[in-house]
Fold each of these.
Amino acid sequence: MAVVVVGAGIAGLACARELVDAGVPARVVERDTRVGGRLASEWLGGRWVDTGAAYLTADDPAFQGRLQSWRIDGLVRPWTDTLRGQAGPPAMRWAAPGGLRSLAEDLARGLEVTLGVPVTEVPAAGAVVLAMPGPQALAIADLPAAREQTWSPVVTAIITYARRSWTDFAGAFVNDHPVLSTVCDDGDRRGDRAPVLVAHSTAAMAECADPGPRMAGAVGELLGIGDPVSVQTRHWPYASPSPGDGWYARHGHVYLCGDAFGRPRVQTAWLSGRAVARAIIQSTDR
Ligand SMILES: Cc1cc2nc3c(=O)[nH]c(=O)nc-3n(C[C@H](O)[C@H](O)[C@H](O)COP(=O)(O)OP(=O)(O)OC[C@H]3O[C@@H](n4cnc5c(N)ncnc54)[C@H](O)[C@@H]3O)c2cc1C
């Protein structure tokens, strides 16, 4: 029987892609009307803005290969290897000219993906892959591994200015700040020089009502710039998991994967989804 993958984030799509490429029938069901999950970009003010993940990093050879393929196809480009406030050595951050969601759309090409359908119980299938944060998976199946995960929220603020008035900085970690965790120059990472900054909140700030004005004020103070023309926010209740281990969890024919199985990164989600696919391909009880 075919495999049903629930969740069209990068983990679910990497899983389905690997299965289908190996000749295993698989279909994806997603509750949103778009693929990508937290690999999110929106068309705002006549251009793409990354409203979820800020950039990609790759230290795994397989994911580096994936990035190189996307680079050849013109979907990603190296952005910057240094962010202001960075603690470690230089590490390349990759950005997508068409927004990071374009990478999910690329993975989804040719797959059977049903959008706009929230799954509420384990679908009938030979194997079921829940490719999502544990708390979301618990709405479908009471999996012990899902209960063990702990998650933090983040608010993204998309802050648009009349013109660029800051000294170029690409992006910054805002360390030990009560309101902000990062600020990125979306015009710089997109390559169009639009006067748009995208800030991510601390977990504490994400719990506050109406965080947008405080986040924009903090960004203005940090960079020494004036008021924006608009501030929009996106709330991610399950933005970032505590780092876990193993590549996925399995309970009978139900698998759980995503970025909670490693460091919380796009790379981890991609590797986790692929690892589940490989386990299913190898299993004899499919
Ligand atoms: C604000 C923010 C900033 C980040 N910055 C970075 C960064 O700079 N670099 C980096 O590498 N990572 C970053 N991340 C993390 C990165 O986005 C994630 O690691 C990765 O996108 C997770 O992919 P996933 O497929 O595991 O989960 P998700 O992207 O969350 O996908 C899960 C999917 O399942 C769907 N779903 C859930 N429940 C159901 C249901 N019942 N029925 C059907 N579908 C369902 C959801 O709609 C979603 O599409 C950031 C995340 C956030 C939120």
Note: The longest helix spans residues 266-282.
Amino acid sequence: MTSGQSDPVIQFGRPDEAERPLGRSIMRGALNQCPNCGTGKLFRAYLKPVDHCAVCGEDLSHQRSDDLPPYLVILVLGHIIIGGYMMTDILFQLPIWAHLAIWAPITVIAALLIIQPIKGGVIGLQWALRMHGFGGHDDSPEPFDQGSGPA
Ligand SMILES: [Zn+2]
């Protein structure tokens, strides 16, 4: 690459807006940090995000993570748990009650451990992409235009 080319950074939003790197924002959210400053806490309780960052004042009430964190937990854990179950079944030939006794608690504990970092990552993603109210605009749906379509 020659020195005259610009960096291959994908820009979202208007060029005059402050840069919001996607990977850094997701990582900060996953580490329970404010995606804007990286210093303030993102969660005030287990899965309750703060409304505003205590350090930089960033408005985090716009997050709409909804069902995506549990969906991602199921997607990730499903592959790990089923893979682990099949691997141990091949190696040890355990009865089904033993598999249940092993894998059911592991599934519950792992889900409880990873849902907060995944939800934080989703909030960081939404913040970086200026989704919902994070871009400074209203999140309400646009009015349906009935006049401009074909007759
Ligand atoms: Zn902050």
Note: The chain has a mean pLDDT of 86.
Amino acid sequence: MRYLLLAHPKHTYQTTALVVAALIVLASLTINAANAQETQRLSLALPEQQQSPAPLVATEAAESSFHKLHYTLKPNQGLGHALQTINNNGNLLWRISRHENANYFTRLRPGDELIKWVNEDNRLVKMKLKRSPTLTYVLETAPSYDDSLNIYAIQQEVETRIQMVSGQINDSFYLGVQAVGASPRTIMNFANIYSWEVDFVREFRAGDEFTIIFERRYVDGEYIGDGHILAAQLNLRHRNRTINAFRFEHEGELIGYFNEQGENLRKAFMRNPINYTRISSHFQRGRYHPVLQEIRDHKGVDYAAPTGTPIYAAGDGTVKSRGWGRGYGNYIILQHAGRYETVYGHMSRFGKFRQGQRVNQGDVIGYVGMTGLATGPHLHYEFRIDGVHHDPLTVEFPSGDPVPEDLKPLFAQWAGLLKSQLRRTDPTATKLATLFE
Ligand SMILES: [Zn+2]
């Protein structure tokens, strides 16, 4: 069975049309997949990225009439080595060098494998280089006409099949998901989608359940890796809480992962704006200040980390100020939507964002240091609402932007169909794995 068209970031087509097509696909999937053993395939047809010119001489069908040679490049070798045994290779190399796509064959790396087709005079008629699982470079030439040479790229069609896995977590989250055949990439994506809602180290209990609907990508029937997660479900049984996640794209751009109400699973702020070694000081009133040697409030959190560790913008916003403060050293204050501000102190140096510039959540705004009053390298981080300091580790964050109003009907349809797929599995009944492909 072969279905076509699902929204894909490389597409610039009308998303509406794609979603409708995808809905039809999923609808048929729902009907046909009552038996989980049945093979189900969804394909995604990528448009040709580049038009291939008409073949000069050696068409695919004609390849077999020529002699086929393989050459694998060794270190410090180039195209000249690969063509050494070819008749009239000097002239050929010169012609290649003048072609606008010469770099397809002149920028070679050790291990690159060139497939050559030569005629009875040992002259080259065709050459191919597989640059990636989806990209092949082709050179064609007619040996009898010295000016005929063509070099172009072929983008292979990627077929995307949709797979659903579900299972229970027993020992650890990672092992649980790995056990049902999800790749490390999909496990990581899954953890990222839910990282705003769940503490993956501490919150899982044996018996918690998950379902993931994700893309597996193929070229010529060969698996090349996982794509996106389209939908997921996490059932934290001990908390009696089920969290669904639906991927939503529009006009080729990811808008986000949302629950069925269209609420963003992402929060407007990251809990910790840094990968830290340990928390060296918590938010507290009346703390003894190690440098000033007096009792003071500590209006933020100190994250100990090596000098140079990147510091991320905790949320989208603009740089309200960037400069030097007596206690803070090099500091940045970010202004976020509404009433929120975040403050970052003791930086060794700043990132590229200047005062007044926009930053996105996760952008590197600076690096850990110990400028100002600090006894060791750390980030001093403050979270302010209407100018009032709150404990960054416990403050309730607002959610990221919900599904835009005008896209809600589209999202509702999409999420509804994905949800009916998620409902099809009962992890307790099927033990560890429900695979279908
Ligand atoms: Zn501090």
Note: Residues 281, 298, 300, 302, 380 surround zinc ion (CB under 6 Å).
Amino acid sequence: MTYEVKSLNEECGVFGIWGHPDAAKLTYFGLHSLQHRGQEGAGILSNDHGQLKRHRDMGLLSEVFREPANLDKLTGTGAIGHVRYATAGEASVDNIQPFLFRFHDMQFGLAHNGNLTNAESLKQELEQRGAIFSATSDSEILAHLIRRSHNPNLMGKIKEALSLVKGGFAYLLLFEDKLIAALDPNGFRPLSIGKMANGAVVVSSETCAFEVIGAEWIRDVKPGEIVIIDDNGIQYDSYTNDTQLAICSMEYIYFARPDSNIHGVNVHTARKRMGAQLAREFKHEADIVVGVPNSSLSAAMGFAEESGLPNEMGLIKNQYTQRTFIQPTQELREQGVRMKLSAVSGVVKGKRVVMIDDSIVRGTTSRRIVQLLKEAGATEVHVAIGSPALAYPCFYGIDIQTRQELIAANHTVEETCQIIGADSLTYLSIDGLINSIGIETDAPNGGLCVAYFDGDYPTPLYDYEEEYRRSLGDKTSFYK
Ligand code: SF4
């Protein structure tokens, strides 16, 4: 579904480059491919012979850099950039990244994708020791930890700081003489490294950014790894050996662009396999398959191929409506669905439709789409979801952090089906999801985090633990 209506949002996208005369411009194009990961604000920080320059603001990338001068002033051969969707910290320009820290003896920039689970306790501790935070997001914490470390060398300081922050994080740090990328010990968020023809090294949340700038993928950053990029090339190091891959399965289901590859798996192909598996688990009679544009179209293709039903364009997305994610009320959100989607009566009229969507969050959007299809003449609407039911909150970088918001946390499948007005509701099984993605790894759950679905978090929840336990009440698990 459209990112905004569903209110299921990635925290951010990051992009960095070292060793190219057009570093900031290439960062702009890289970020442009990552815009789906955050539309609230954007920024680029460049490095011109050790001088760090920055422009950032609220809005889409094209709005932030509407004035060419804002990009032209970012000279230099190294840069990092960021597109933001806020999960932690309020919507304000102070929270737009990259952050820039200037000290009497050094300066560096920072861009972060993810969510720290011990941010509150670290922040309190740091403030008690005199630290002053300029933003309300959790992304500044690492910079304070680096600066306050007593380790005598910079890499030692960075490693120490990285071992203190917990949760999901992909960091890019731009220093006067190097670019550093680091990933959390579970690799919750994706981060890939590429190379350009002139030898410049690029780092991106998603590989789709490499295509745009003509870079070649080298490899993905591993959990617990630090990648140091400077004029001598790339160096791989780690700050912990206690690692286990648990990449966010929602990246494959919903967030990442279909043309991105994550840990050797193409996102579109994974979605097609999810759709095919969903068809095998689906138990109803139908005439046509209709995917909800855009992120469910790959799964709809897989479902149609496997089931032998025709894959029809029964829903059209209006590409030119205003972003609606800033609309606060439920009523406006519901209106937002109508602005974005139309059912094609000539296609669905008189048909039993299998409506494929990637997930159900609150149920509002699904109810509206079912209604649209029925109003357009569909005789039956069977909703088939290309992921298991979202019954638990995420603490690693997705913006739903309370169970009350999730329809599946509070209702059975039958109740949910009734609420959304469908004739049947089928979710993909957790095993079906894991097998469909198929990362080559020995890690549990096929190297995926599936905590959204089973509540089995790969790490302690630190500051969120108590609140989460309280929210569980007597409903300990949706599946058990
Ligand atoms: S809890 Fe869900 S959204 Fe969060 S990292 Fe795990 S799979 Fe992704």
Note: Residues 1-6, 323-328, 476-480 have pLDDT under 50 and may be disordered.
